[in-house]
Amino acid sequence: MLGDKLRAERERQNLTIKDIEKGTSIRALYIECIEKGEYGSLPGEVYTKGFIRNYAAFLKLDANAFVQEFNEEVHPEVLQQPEETATDAAEEKDDSIDMGSVKASFEDNAHRQNKILAAVICLLVLGGAYFLLATGDDGQVARAPQQVKQETAAVKEAPKAEESKAAAAPAKRDDVEVVAKFDDRCWTQVIADGKTLYEGTMEKGKTMSWKAKETVSITAGNAGAVALSVNGQDMGKVGETGQVVEKVFTPSGEKKEADKKTK
Question: Which CATH class is domain 2-74?
Answer without folding.
Answer: mainly alpha
